[in-house]
Amino acid sequence: MNKIMYLEFERCIGCRACQAACRECGDHDAKERNYVEYVDFTESRQTFPMLCMQCKDPACARVCPANAIQITEEGVVLSAMEEKCIGCRNCTFGCPFGIPKFDFEKNKMYKCDMCYDRTREGISPMCASVCPSDAIRFIDFDEMQELRRRRTQMNLIEGKKPQEGNKWDYVPEFFGVYTDSNQ
Amino acid sequence: MSQFLVKEGVKNQIRKGEKLVATHCCYCGMQCGMHIRVNEKTNKVVGVEPRYDWVLTKGKMCPKGVTAYQTIDHPDRIKRPLIKKNGQFVESSWEEALDLIERKYKEIQGEYGRDAIGVYGGVSMTNEKCYLVGKYARVALGTRYIDYNGRYCMSSAAGGFNKTLGMDRGSTLPWTELEHSDCFFMAGSNTAECHPTSIQWFWKAKDKGAKIIVADPRETPTARVADVHLDLLPGTDSALANGIMHLLIKHDYVDTEYVNERCNNFEELKEMTARFTPEYTAKLTGIAVEKIVKAAHIFGKSPRSVVMFARGAEQQTKGVDNVSLYTSMALLRGQIGKFASGVATLTGQGNGQGGREHGQKADALPGYRKITNPKDREYIAGVWGIEPEEMPQEGVSAYEMFNLMEAKTIRGLHVICSNPVVSSPNINYVQKALEGLDFLVVNDFFLSETAELADVVLPTATWAEDEGTTTNTEGRVIRIRKVVDPIGESKPDWEIMQLIAERMGKGKFFPYKEPREIFDELRIASKGGKADYYGVTYEKIDAQDGVFWPAPAEDHMGTPSVFKDKFATEDGKANLAVCDWREPGEIPNTGYPLWLTTGRVVFHYLTGNQTRRVGFLMDQCPEPFVEIHPELASQYQIQNGERVKISTPRGEMTAPARITKAIRKDTLFVPYHWGKEQSINQLTSPALDPFSRMPEFKVCAVKLEKLTK
């Protein structure tokens, strides 16, 4: 699987279709595993999606005393195995991003598995499939790199001038030609 | 049953023992493509799967679309006809319900005349059904009083387009072209929440450098991404459009050749807009002068631009003026009829486009024909097999029908696919009008607030239980597929109308065995009209991913872009709008010092009769709320989440406050998806646009009060 989950936070429109769709994935037991949060509702409507990043060396799996969290050969960090999970919730405390959820009725942890039964066939996960705003995409590595180069190019076209606070968002000054136009 | 259809070469997840049926969503005008998952053994709907190959939406869906399938096999579905006996609904047989309807209809019509029964339609159903509602009213019941919920939705857009362009197709261009546009001017549209899957096209364009200008009193998720957000006062769109056109003329952004060749009234428009200097416009609209100037320059400089608007601009007493003026902005720039540019209204209801074309409106006959035009009457009477003299005359608009119920002119009503006691303005009045009826029949698949008032509720099939076509926001006719058989004893609306027609002795005019036969009749009925469907066939829709009307001949491929060479007016030229600024029907005063505007949230659809029954959507947005700017909230000493009271002379409600800077300081916003004491339409104003008869949902004066303990 050399596809990438590519998130563009600023594109999120807060519709939560990703969460509704997460519930629809085959093994997801009608429970969503992703998050959409307001940055600050009083200030603006800006929301952002949050998914498991499938860490290389996941804290959730490392702190699991029962070895219940498996990592697939493609690197997908799965939900706790039902027969092994002892319901200690270590994983939910261990994850630095607050991703794993806990089912208090079934006494086990569940989390994003990148819709493993879809993605291993090369089919886009549910959240990325439905995201109407392209805030979540499931794309090739090369496509992602192209998108990133393109963002930089767009900044040049739009004639934005880097400020002290955001200069790292832009290419160095010796590289591009900036215009002062406001349009 | 529909044939199992998944496109070749498109990878979808198909689980063992399941099949996918390709169809479209039941909700808004985007009509997103989707697959419904069906268990082959039990033949039950089990879920949804994206339809990546659908050309307009590419598998994307909003949360309503994702959960739409959950309404099909829902425990709240009405499965047998309900008859109200001693104030309680009792399940009955179709026979008994139809007997009662026949007896009551004949009784009322016998005593008070044919027009004493009215029909109130809707456009969240297929073209076949919408067409048949018009025929049912005029042929089966012989009544002049028919109108539909599109009056509250698309009538101003229709009025404005007809006035300026001579024809009302919601979008003059196919939306797959939007990615090539350079500028979008969106007025009164929160497209990110109301048509979420459209956003992908704006992003594609933005990635190529396109600019977005949004006019909205709120900083909606759409306005948030705009290059310029024109935060206008509710009800001031016509001043804004005049002001922008003033600047387009002043700075020489007018496409003179196009205007001279293809438009009337330029000199008059020039004279009218002369007064609308940025300063004067700013005074009327409450927008800063710089923003107006900036927007005009961006719009004026863009080689390809699309002007778009939605209910924010249309649901006003100046709805038609607003649409005409915004359309004129596009005309001044010479944009209509060209690649990746033009003008579009964002259709709110699933079949808001198709449903308004084929005679569900008080003054309309199929194919945008006019019931007042003798030739049109004659043609349609011929198609229907009746005498032209038998064709009833023009009726009245939706809201005015309630006036007639109060006056006892209309004594019985058949509501099909609508929930007017939630969707109408001033619903306390509307509810009384409906309660005063002698006899009310409602077709629905859930017991809506309107159905609760009915004497007979007839259980209908959902969108997934019947075949048919709809016309999406672009003007593209698409196929809706039957996924499963209707649940319980429910029947599709066309069958119900057919059964009642038989009881009224008009069965021979309704000989249909399947929706395709109705569609074939519609094709002939619309032939030669402006909305010409003659060349649209089910096969062609499948073969070419939908057919854009007009398609006037059998071998015609359809017309993705309209007005390429000439407009549909009599002289072929567009009429630029010359409209002065008028005040809204109601403006803030000492008793009611603030503005009130209403709208949608992304989680609910229209009156919420469907979406309020879906768990996920209710979890996200369980009740209405009042959006208040923190500055205003602090003056009223209101905290976030606190319940507040809002009122107008027509009604009052309480709801929790949501404090946000994303709204004007002088305006309150409340979403309208709830009924009864939770309905903001208790407060809204029934002032009507003089031309389209659209009520002014979006503007009224309101009082805000802190609740004392």
UniProtKB/TrEMBL annotation, chain A:
<dbReference type="InterPro" id="IPR017896">
    <property type="entry name" value="4Fe4S_Fe-S-bd"/>
</dbReference>
<protein>
    <submittedName>
        <fullName>4Fe-4S dicluster domain-containing protein</fullName>
    </submittedName>
</protein>
<keyword id="KW-0004">4Fe-4S</keyword>
<feature type="domain" description="4Fe-4S ferredoxin-type">
    <location>
        <begin position="43"/>
        <end position="74"/>
    </location>
</feature>
<dbReference type="Pfam" id="PF13247">
    <property type="entry name" value="Fer4_11"/>
</dbReference>
<keyword id="KW-0411">Iron-sulfur</keyword>
<dbReference type="InterPro" id="IPR050954">
    <property type="entry name" value="ET_IronSulfur_Cluster-Binding"/>
</dbReference>
<keyword id="KW-0813">Transport</keyword>
<dbReference type="InterPro" id="IPR017900">
    <property type="entry name" value="4Fe4S_Fe_S_CS"/>
</dbReference>
<keyword id="KW-0479">Metal-binding</keyword>
<keyword id="KW-0677">Repeat</keyword>
<dbReference type="GO" id="GO:0051539">
    <property type="term" value="F:4 iron, 4 sulfur cluster binding"/>
</dbReference>
<feature type="domain" description="4Fe-4S ferredoxin-type">
    <location>
        <begin position="3"/>
        <end position="33"/>
    </location>
</feature>
<dbReference type="GO" id="GO:0046872">
    <property type="term" value="F:metal ion binding"/>
</dbReference>
<keyword id="KW-0249">Electron transport</keyword>
<feature type="domain" description="4Fe-4S ferredoxin-type">
    <location>
        <begin position="76"/>
        <end position="105"/>
    </location>
</feature>
<keyword id="KW-0408">Iron</keyword>
<dbReference type="Pfam" id="PF12797">
    <property type="entry name" value="Fer4_2"/>
</dbReference>
